[in-house]
Automatic annotation (TrEMBL):
<keyword id="KW-0809">Transit peptide</keyword>
<dbReference type="GO" id="GO:0005743">
    <property type="term" value="C:mitochondrial inner membrane"/>
</dbReference>
<feature type="binding site">
    <location>
        <position position="178"/>
    </location>
    <ligand>
        <name>GTP</name>
    </ligand>
</feature>
<comment type="function">
    <text>Plays a role in the regulation of the mitochondrial ribosome assembly and of translational activity. Displays mitochondrial GTPase activity.</text>
</comment>
<feature type="binding site">
    <location>
        <begin position="52"/>
        <end position="55"/>
    </location>
    <ligand>
        <name>GTP</name>
    </ligand>
</feature>
<dbReference type="InterPro" id="IPR023179">
    <property type="entry name" value="GTP-bd_ortho_bundle_sf"/>
</dbReference>
<dbReference type="GO" id="GO:0032543">
    <property type="term" value="P:mitochondrial translation"/>
</dbReference>
<feature type="binding site">
    <location>
        <begin position="125"/>
        <end position="130"/>
    </location>
    <ligand>
        <name>GTP</name>
    </ligand>
</feature>
<dbReference type="InterPro" id="IPR006073">
    <property type="entry name" value="GTP-bd"/>
</dbReference>
<dbReference type="InterPro" id="IPR027417">
    <property type="entry name" value="P-loop_NTPase"/>
</dbReference>
<keyword id="KW-0496">Mitochondrion</keyword>
<keyword id="KW-0999">Mitochondrion inner membrane</keyword>
<keyword id="KW-0342">GTP-binding</keyword>
<keyword id="KW-0547">Nucleotide-binding</keyword>
<protein>
    <recommendedName>
        <fullName>Mitochondrial GTPase 1</fullName>
    </recommendedName>
</protein>
<feature type="domain" description="CP-type G">
    <location>
        <begin position="3"/>
        <end position="182"/>
    </location>
</feature>
<dbReference type="GO" id="GO:0005525">
    <property type="term" value="F:GTP binding"/>
</dbReference>
Length: 293
């Protein structure tokens, strides 16, 4: 569904919403955030920024730098979570921050004083539904999923009915579909989103995505890919030639494809293998935005 349609649906819910929780991917803490959300949602309601998948970055190295970056830009609260592992301390931080924001902010047009309502927003596949399920389990002890969550973008396709996540005080959360910003149309932003699996893989050329990953690793002076791809014997020095790297990766891992004219190297499989190493946080650094703050 078109972004403007989804935003209008979210705005229609704002009259009954006390807090907006934005979930984003900690591997790209700056890139890809939807500025339309700020103009339409955050400027109207209190806002908490939750950076999920923090287990995939070096928190000792980046936590304070990311916090300082956002506090300098007016974001009042930045939290880090890993909703897959459901770490109690991180979920307690979310709970405490929610309660503080809800209990210390005017209720605007709300007439019902006995319950609170929050809305979770963000781009696709950053963990919005996972956060709701994790909070519900953490605070209410209910393990059954309240909203569907998946490892692919676009699982949530419409603004959902509210889900109760807390009893004292009663707090409900509305799940929303992931909405990509039209403002981020440059190639590098698109490649970062794709590397983090935040857009459908069918929309991405794997060869070019692997090429960007190679470029980024070399720029970051991270040459561990030679060993991780198993090509350190054939490739003694770093290279910016993705075709050479993929050919040697296919040879080292026996990635072949059968054709009527004979065998050839399966470059798509080699590229997927390379990209998956990044998604599994196998390289020295996974923060694609480290140069932005």
């Amino acid at each position: 569904m078109h972004m403007s349609v989804q935003l209008k649906k979210m705005e229609a819910k704002l009259r009954s919403v006390d807090l907006v929780i934005e979930v984003h991917d900690a591997r790209i803490p700056v890139t890809g955030r939807n500025e339309q959300f700020f103009r339409h949602l955050y400027a109207i309601r209190p806002h908490i920024l939750v950076l999920n998948k923090c287990d995939l970055i070096d928190m000792k190295r980046y936590k304070k730098r990311i916090e300082d970056y956002y506090y300098d830009r007016g974001v009042q609260k930045v939290l880090f979570t890993d909703c897959k592992k459901r770490l109690p301390r991180a979920l307690n931080d979310v709970k405490t921050s929610m309660l503080y924001a809800l209990e210390n902010t005017p209720r605007f047009n709300r007439t019902v004083k006995t319950e609170y309502q929050a809305m979770v927003v963000g781009i696709p596949n950053v963990g919005k539904s996972s956060l709701i399920n994790a909070m519900r389990t953490h605070t209410l002890g209910i393990k059954r999923k309240a909203v569907e969550a998946g490892a692919r973008p676009g699982v949530t396709v419409r603004v959902q009915n509210r889900v109760r996540i807390m009893d004292k005080p009663p707090i409900y959360i509305i799940d929303t579909p992931g909405v990509l910003s039209p403002d981020h149309r440059n190639i590098e932003d698109a490649m970062k989103l794709a590397l983090c699996d935040l857009v459908l893989e069918s929309h991405v050329n794997l060869y070019y995505l692997a090429d960007y990953l190679l470029f980024w690793l070399n720029q970051s002076n991270d040459f561990s890919y030679l060993k991780l791809l198993g090509i350190q014997e054939q490739q003694k020095e770093p290279s910016d030639d993705i075709q050479e790297i993929l050919a040697k990766t296919c040879a080292a891992n026996d990635f072949r494809i059968q054709r009527s004219m004979g065998e050839r190297w399966d470059f798509d499989r080699g590229a997927k293998h390379f990209i998956q190493l990044y998604r599994n946080s196998k390289f020295e650094d996974s923060n694609l935005d480290h140069h932005l703050f």
